[in-house]
Design goal:
about 15% strand, seven-stranded parallel β-sheet, binds NADP nicotinamide-adenine-dinucleotide phosphate, alpha/beta
């Protein structure tokens, strides 16, 4: 099951997992976009189930996971990629509603999906959960206070779930990218002054492409990652090395 599967990083991971032999439950709010990704998955010879769901709504998450289980009978891997970043303001200007919206989707959504899918994985006695954090979970990014709070939260939830479920067959990890070329960062990347500043802070000297995140996700979902849990794998072009 992949949340945020309709676009960007989630979509890339979905197609890569299909290429590696996975059948997929594809989750986001927009059914039409999911249908397009589902068609791509089917072209690769795998099954795809598009499921419209707002991950910040507990009842919708429950129904969605039940629908995936009705189709497939089990969930081996959950990728939490659903996320938003609609606010780019200093902390003193950030409204309560903006804080709540970012935390609801990016942190509560990750927790709800992990909790509901986790219950199934506990019964299976196996499973992998991989959440897309950000360098904003590791370092402070000015004008992104709610986003950084949510991403730091994702990394803490990842550690707690990893500890609670380590002896029950479930491994829980996160991936922290720097800036990736997706809809989420279009506004920043299309502002020449901001884009130049971001690239100056990126040792590899370019934005990531969604495909740059695939290897880490495949690693954490596969046998190669069998001894990895409770960690955040940085895929950040060197951003946090300095
Ligand atoms: N792009 C970057 O530079 C970057 C860097 C570090 C981390 N990340 C993280 O990577 C993840 C994916 O980001 P992206 O860059 O791929 O963004 P994106 O291209 O904007 O895609 C976001 C995805 O999340 C879904 N989504 C948004 N709100 C949702 C909700 N309430 N319920 C269910 N699905 C929802 C969107 O579909 P709908 O709109 O149809 O719901 C879409 O599939 C996010 O968690 C983001 O914070 C991104």
């Amino acid at each position: 099951m992949i949340t945020g599967a309709s676009r960007g990083i989630g979509r890339s991971i979905a197609l890569a997992f299909a290429g590696a032999g996975a059948d997929l439950a594809l989750v986001s709010r927009t059914r039409g976009d999911l249908e397009t990704v589902a068609a791509g998955v089917r072209e690769l010879g795998r099954r795809a189930l598009p499921l419209a769901c707002d991950v910040s709504q507990a009842a919708q998450v429950q129904t969605t996971v039940e629908a995936a289980l009705a189709e497939y009978g089990r969930i081996d891997v959950l990728v939490n990629s659903a996320g938003i970043s609609p606010v780019y303001k200093r902390a003193e200007q950030t409204a309560e509603a903006e804080w709540d919206q970012v935390l609801a989707v990016n942190l509560k959504g990750m927790f709800l999906c992990s909790q509901v899918v986790g219950r199934t994985m506990l019964k299976q006695k196996s499973g992998r959960i991989i959440s897309i954090s950000s360098i904003g979970g590791q370092v402070g990014l000015p004008r992104l206070v709610a986003y950084c709070a949510a991403k730091g939260g994702i990394e803490q939830v990842t550690k707690v779930l990893a500890l609670e479920w380590a002896d029950r067959g479930i491994q829980v990890n996160a991936i922290a990218p720097a800036y990736v070329e997706t809809d989420l960062t279009r506004g920043l990347r299309e502002n020449p002054r901001l884009a130049e500043g971001l690239l100056r802070q990126t040792p590899l000297g370019r934005f990531a492409r969604p495909a740059d995140i695939i290897g880490a996700a495949l690693f954490l979902a596969s046998e190669a990652g069998a001894y990895v849990t409770g960690t955040t794998l940085l895929v950040d072009g060197g951003w946090t090395a300095g």
